[in-house]
Amino acid sequence: MWTEDSQNDWSRSSEKVKSGSYAARFRGSGTDSQLISVPINLQGKTSATITFYWYINSGLDSGEYIAFDISTDNGLTWTEKLRLKGNVDKENSWLSTNTILTELNDNLKVRFRGRSNQSSEKGFVDLVKVVAQ
Fold first, then answer.
1. pTM (global) more than 0.90
2. Are residues 108 and 40 in contact, defined by beta-carbon separation less than 8 angstroms?
């Protein structure tokens, strides 16, 4: 259900999980390394609640982050909705997010992007859920 860009900084990992056996792990010296969803069928609905958990370790420095973006044109353009920033936001802890999006269509995609400069700097995403309304 997910693809990543050619930087290959995202992987399935059991290192840190919120629930279940695996989470998506960002690790590496990536510059906006991307993990992109397949198109999400909202079955004609025009709004959705998107929830997920994410985590960054204390190794992420200022200017390094994991971001959450959406696209309503099947990935041609993207809009950043949330960003979890190293040395700014809470680190070494799972954080819950809940965002409501409106004016959507069946060309919705979500993506996570990561930026760091060392493989010891890591972030994780787990339990991504999209509920159309």
1. yes
2. yes
Closest CA to 92 of 59, 116, 53: 59
| Distances, alpha carbon 11 to alpha carbons 39, 85, 92, in Å | 20, 20, 19
pLDDT at 28 over 90: no
Which domain CATH number covers 123? 2.60.120.260
Task: Give the pLDDT band (50/70/90) at residue 53.
Answer: very high
Q: Which structure tokens are listed for 110?
A: 């979500």
- Which range marks the domain in which residue 97 is found? 2-132
CA distances from 132 to 15, 52, 58 (A): 31, 15, 34
Residue 1's pLDDT band, with cuts at 50, 70 and 90, is: confident
Counting residues of the chain whose pLDDT is more than 90, the rounded percentage is 83
Tally of residues, the chain: 133
CA 75 to chain centre: 15
> Which among 1, 10, 29 is positioned nearest to 124, based on CA atoms?
10
Number of domains in the chain: 1
The amino acid at 49: T
